[in-house]
Amino acid sequence: MIELQLTGIFPRSNELIKATRSYDKGLISWNELLEYIKKDAQYVINLQIDMGFDCIIDGMYLWQDIFRPFTEGVKGIKPGALTRWFDNNTFFRKPLIGEIDVDTHIPFIHRYILLDLMMSPCKKVILPGPYTFLSLSSRGYDENTIISLAKIMAREVENLENKGVKVFQFNEPSLVYRESPDKVFRVFENLREAYEIIRKKAEGKIILHTYFGNAAPVMNELLDLPVDYIGVDFYSTEFMDLKEISMNKGLLCGCLDSRNSYMEDPMKVVELVKKIEEHMNPKEIILTPNCDLEFLPRKIAVKKMKILVDVKKLLEGDNNV
C-alpha cells in the first residue's frame, strides 16, 4: 500500500510572516496573530485533503521550532540560546535540561496543535525524538534523561491519541547526521527501552524518521526498534547501500528534496520506489518529502506535494498526470 504524508513544518504565507513581525513589535495582539495562523493552517489542511493525502498535519505553525513547546512547558527544561539547525539557515532554541519532573507532568502539547481544524479521519502529529532532543540539548546524551524524556513523550502520545491522533512521527536526525556509527550503536539498547515506553501508550502508528544523514550504517539497529515505520532521507542515503536490507516494517520514503527548489521528475521517483519495493520489500510505503518543507517558498512546496500525488498515481497505473 502506498500512502502520502508530510513530514514537518510547512512554509508560512507572506501574510503570516508580516503578522508575526507585527506581533513581535507589539503592533497586534496574540489573538489577532492566531487568526493568521489558523488561516495558514486551514490552507495546508485543505491542500492535503484536496490532494488525497492519507494522514494530515496542521502545518505546525504554533511551533517556533521542534523543541519549543517542550522547553516552554516541561518542568526542568528551558529554552536556551539560538542555535543553527544542523547545516541549514534556520535556528532553534537549545533545550537547557535540568531535572525533569516526570511525576507531575500534565500533557499540554495538544494546545500547540490545531486539532479542531483537522477534519480528517487520520490526524498526524510530529514530535522530537528523545535521542535528538538530548543530543542537541545543553546536557547531551545520557541514559537516564532519555528515559525521562520518553515518559514525558508517552504521556503526550496517550493524551493526543485520546483526542483523535492516529499517527505519531518522531524526528531523529541526530541518529544519522555526521555521527560515528560506533557511537550510535552504543545507545540503541537504551533507545529501544525509550521507544518501548512510548509504544506501550500508543495504539496508533509510530514512525521514527531519520534525515540529513546516511541511515544505512544503522539501519539494522533501527529496524529492531519497537516502531511501525522507519523514515529514510533518500537524498542523504543511497538506495544501493540499503538494497540488501529486508524491511520488517513500513518505510517512510523521503523521496523529494525539501531543501532544493529543483522539481523532481515523477518517473525517476517511480523508478526509485519500484526498486525499493523489489529489493527491500517494506510492509507499506509512505511517500513524503525528505524533511520539513519550510526551507522552500510556499509555491514550490505545493508543487512538490503535487509531484508526490503524480508519483502515487503512476505507481497505481494511472498515467494521466
From TrEMBL:
Alphabetical list of InterPro entries matching this protein: Cbl-indep_Met_Synth_N (IPR013215), UROD/MetE-like_sf (IPR038071)
Single GO biological process annotation from the record: amino acid biosynthetic process
Pfam families for the chain: Meth_synt_1
Molecular function per GO: 5-methyltetrahydropteroyltriglutamate-homocysteine S-methyltransferase activity; zinc ion binding
Domain Cobalamin-independent methionine synthase MetE N-terminal: 73-280
Protein name, entry field: Cobalamin-independent methionine synthase MetE N-terminal domain-containing protein
